[in-house]
Write a structure and sequence with these properties.
This is Prepilin peptidase-dependent protein. Its main location: membrane. InterPro entries: N_methyl_site, Prepilin_Pept-dep_B_prd, T2SS_protein_J. It comes from Pantoea phytobeneficialis. The chain is α+β, with helices and mostly antiparallel strands. It has a domain of 111 residues. The protein is 31% helix and 30% strand. It contains one helix and eight strands, in the order αββββββββ. Strands 1-2-3-4-5 form a five-stranded antiparallel beta sheet, with helices on one face. A hairpin with a 2-residue loop joins strand 7 and strand 8. The longest helix has 55 residues.
């Protein structure tokens, strides 16, 4: 009595293993490239999100500049150092005046670029000095350019950030409602 045996021969198995090995080697070559490209794309998305968040913070401050629920004196907006430092004033507590630099509830604000980082300080009327807080994380992002330009009531904010070897520039316009 004869039994039919079905299956692969040794030669067929060796050929299948050889084809599989070639495919695995090919995939192994492209996997590091794919992972590196994925990392670059992730960094670019994070950079874009970080710049958008900072830009929105700056836009909000620029829209507020000049607000006063009474009689306020002094310039509501001062742009210095070729646009890389902006000094603003607004009546945050609506008490009808801008509280000065030495006041605990000062209505004076500043934003500046320093050493590749965007910084902010409350209670400041000068672009120099200490006590400024970073708005960006130096471990992740280097700000290459921060610039504010004014055309009447319209203000342009331009930020250029860099992560690893990727650089991205974001530009936006905002209207200073109280200027």
């Amino acid at each position: 009595m004869r039994i039919n045996q079905a299956g692969f021969s040794l030669l067929e198995m060796l050929m299948a293993m050889a084809v599989g090995a070639v495919l695995m080697v090919s995939a192994g070559r492209f996997l590091p490239l794919l992972l590196a490209e994925n990392l670059r794309l992730l960094q670019r998305v994070q950079l874009q999100q970080e710049l958008q968040q900072i830009t929105q913070t700056l836009q909000k401050a620029l829209r507020r500049a000049g607000y006063c629920n009474g009689e306020c004196s002094g310039p509501p907006l001062t742009i210095r150092e070729n646009g890389s430092c902006v000094l603003l004033r607004w009546d945050e507590n609506s008490n009808g005046r801008w509280e000065g630099v030495g006041h605990s509830d000062s209505d004076f604000y500043g934003y500046r670029l320093r050493s590749g980082q965007l910084e902010m300080q409350r209670g400041v009327d000068d672009c120099n000095g200490n006590g400024w807080e970073r708005l960006t994380d130096p471990e992740f992002l280097a700000v290459e350019q921060f610039r504010v330009e004014r055309e009447a009531r319209r203000l342009m904010v331009q930020l250029t950030g860099k992560v690893a070897e990727q650089s991205l520039t974001q530009e936006s316009w905002v209207t200073g409602e109280n200027l």
